Amino acid sequence: MSEEEKVTETTEEKPTKNSVAKEIWEWVYTLAIAIIIALLIKGFIFDIVRVDGSSMFPTLVDNDRLIVTKLAYEPHQGDIIILDSEYKNREQYFDNLAKSEGKDDLSYFEKLIESRSMPANFKKKYYVKRIIAMPGQTVDLVDGKVYVDGTLLDEPYYDGVTSSIDPTVEYPVTVDDDNVFVMGDNRNHSKDSRSSELGQVPYDAILGKSQIRIWPLNDIGRTK
Question: How far apart (Å, rounded) are the C-alpha atoms in residues 212 and 60?
């Protein structure tokens, strides 16, 4: 055998308990980081939600999947948003609980703990609606049409009649600070700001803006 052809036989090192433990730890660490990143993305950047119901028909239909952006979102008139319909009721629940304990308010962590045992009707329940009016604007319903600050609202997504659905809500209505007035595009089948049960929606109750429909595949595109 020539000098160039010589080889040296080696023996494989058997993995030690320490090396196996280290490898397992690296896998666990990597998985934990991935989960944390995923939760941060879901909590603060974007989310994927499923439409349940027909309140936004024909713009959106039951079982549509939407990408919702959250990061630095600022509400604008005409936006399709995802909102927590129980936000105000839940905050009132926390306020009452704080008063019963002699406190002015509950901390974030106290609310987090209490949310695990609160009544089911106060837990988060999401609606998809369209912003009709912003803070300070006035909404009126006249002859089946929507007027904002005295001007007929341009609604290319809806050509039907918009009626009052709650006799306790009187028009015109001026939108409060840090709130929006919302409606569903399917006006005859939508529980929205025309109802005192939902009413005006606080900014803090808004999850984010619907940007893209990703399901069904034949309807992929921007939502508007």
Answer: 11
First to last CA, the chain: 77
Angle, CA of 82, 84 and 88, to the nearest 5°? 145
Closest CA relative to residue 201, chosen from 177, 170, 217, 223? 177
Look up residue 185 and give its two tokens. 């595009």
DSSP 8-class letter at 186: S
Round to whole Å and give the CA distance between 217 and 102: 54
User: For residue 34, what are its two tokens?
Assistant: 């991935």
pLDDT per residue as tens digits for the range 133-142:
999 999 999 9
pTM value is 0.79
Do β-strands 126-133 and 173-174 pair in parallel, antiparallel, or remain unpaired? unpaired
User: CA–CA separation, 95 vs 89, rounded Å?
Assistant: 10
